Hints:
Elements: E1 7-14, E2 18-27, E3 32-38, H1 46-57, E4 60-70, H2 81-98, H3 105-113, H4 129-197, H5 204-218, H6 221-239, H7 245-266, H8 269-289
Parallel strand pairs: 3-4
Antiparallel strand pairs: 1-2, 2-4
Helix pairs in contact: 1-4, 4-6, 4-8, 6-7, 7-8
Amino acid sequence: MIQSMTGYGKATAELPDKKINVEIKSLNSKAMDLSTRIAPAYREKEIEIRNEISKVLERGKVDFSLWIEKKEGADAIPVNKAILENYYLQLDSICNELGIPRPEPGDWLQVLLRMPDVMSKTEIQELSEEEWNTVHATVFEAVGHLVDFRKQEGAALEKKFREKIENIHSLLEKITPYEKERVEKVKERITDALEKTLSVDYDKNRLEQELIYYIEKLDVNEEKQRLGNHLKYFISTMESGNGQGKKLGFIAQEMGREINTLGSKSNHAEMQKIVVQMKDELEQIKEQVLNVM
C-alpha cells in the first residue's frame, strides 16, 4: 500500500509540573527535509529525535515542534532570600556610614528586587530517564498519527491511480477499430492523388510495396503493447509496498513517451482525440504521483 507524503500528527502528555506538546506535519519533497523546534530542556535529545523521525518517515518536507506548557504556579521565579538579605545588610551599612537617608520600607523592596541575581530562575535540572521516556513516547505517538494520516491519503491516491490507469487502458482499446480504417484511408488518399490529381499511370504492384513500407512506419502495435505493459507495471509497483513514489514517477514518464509516439503516428483525427484524452489522464497521474512517498 502506498503512502502520501502529506500528513499531520499531534500528541500531548501530562507531567506533574508541565504539559508536553508535540506537533509534526509533512509535505512532498524529493528527499527527507526535516526542520525541528525543540524546547531547551530536551535539546540534548535532538539528534536522536531527528534520526528516528527520518527512519520512520523516509521522505518529505517535515516540520517538527516539541514545546512545554508550564502548569499554573510552576513557572514562578523564586526570590533568592540569601542574596536579598546580603544586599539589604550592605545597603543598610552604607547608609549608616555615609549618613544617607534610608528609603521607605516599600521603596527598600523595590530597590532590592532590582539587584542582580535576586530574582533568578532555578537551574535546569538533568533530564530524568522517566521524563524522557514520556517525551519519547509522545513524540512517536505524534509520528504514528502522521503515518496514519499518510496511509489514509495514500489509499485515496491509490484509488485515483487505479481509476486513471483503467481509463487509459480503456482508451487504448478504443484505438484498435480505427487502425484498419486508417490504413484503408491512407491507401485511398494516395491512390486518388495519383489517379485524379497527377493523372499518371502507375505500377500497382510497386504501389502496394510502397504502401506496405509507409504503413509499417505508421504501425502502432509496439507502442500499444509497451503502453499496456507500463500500465500493468504501474499497478504492480503500486501494490508492492511503501516507498515507491520515485519509481511510479519513472513509469509515468515511460507511459508518456509511448502515448506521444501514438499521437505522432496516429494520422487519424479520431485516434488523435483518443491520444489527447490519454494525455489528460496521464497528466493527472503525474501531478498526484509527486505526493507518493
